[in-house]
Specification:
Length: 233
């Protein structure tokens, strides 16, 4: 009897672990979706000419958004606006349930995506692959969102308004980006077979020998103190 009960407990614990692992995986996907939405807001927050000379890479384990910059001069100018930019991103992050502590600037990886190949034929192949694996406007519009997902979008808008009722245009931008990211993720889950070997999310392009999505790849490449040290020298 004891052995039988023990086996039952093991199966029960195994079932619980499976459910928990699935839940954690789902929460991580939702977190990544919200992080992508927040980073997609960067061009709106920073404006020109910096939106074309800087690009958010990922959010580090300390809650800092790592921003790649095209050169040291851009990094220095953005450093002067750090507190103001961080405040704007922090407000947006709060609405999405993401705690943002600050910004870090990275000099090394701005051109990394464009450096994949120097051979023109290979570049054209990569561009075509990205196009084929990335949804366009028609594909995004064709994605059907569930009632639960539509409710999540409305809840996000309500939460943003409650947190800061003065910037409705920014709120609409955040909600629009979130819906776009949600539709893109659903489309890629149905149509893209290449998946990141670390986070398991579908990705139109994989980077490095390990086959990582861009977020995981840059997170593995950028060391905590690297960007600030580069800007200070």
């Amino acid at each position: 009897m004891g052995i039988s009960n023990y086996g039952g407990k093991k199966r029960s614990l195994s079932s619980v672990n499976t459910v928990l692992n699935s839940l954690v995986s789902s929460l991580n996907l939702d977190k990544r979706l919200k992080e992508h939405t927040l980073m997609g807001l960067w061009p709106t927050v920073v404006g020109e000419p910096f939106s074309s000379k800087s690009r958010p890479l990922f959010i580090d384990h300390e809650g800092n958004i790592v921003i790649s910059v095209s050169d040291a001069a851009v990094g220095q100018e953005l450093s002067l606006m750090r507190s103001q930019l961080a405040k704007r991103m922090r407000i947006a992050g709060n609405g999405l349930g993401i705690e943002i502590r600050g910004l870090r600037f990275d000099l090394k990886h701005f051109h990394k995506k464009e450096e994949a190949q120097t051979n023109q034929a290979a570049v054209e192949t990569i561009r075509k692959m990205r196009h084929d694996n990335s949804p366009g406007a028609d594909e995004l519009a064709s994605v059907t969102l569930s009632d639960e997902e539509l409710a999540d979008i409305q809840a996000l808008k309500t939460r943003l308004t409650a947190a800061d009722g003065e910037h409705s245009q920014i709120h609409d931008r955040i909600v629009g980006l979130y819906e776009k990211e949600l539709r893109a993720r659903k489309w890629m889950e149905a149509n893209v077979t290449t998946r990141c070997q670390l986070c398991s999310q579908p990705s139109p392009m994989l980077y490095g020998s390990q086959g990582l999505c861009s977020t995981c790849f840059f997170a593995s490449q950028v060391r905590p103190a690297q960007s600030e040290d580069a800007l200070n020298h």
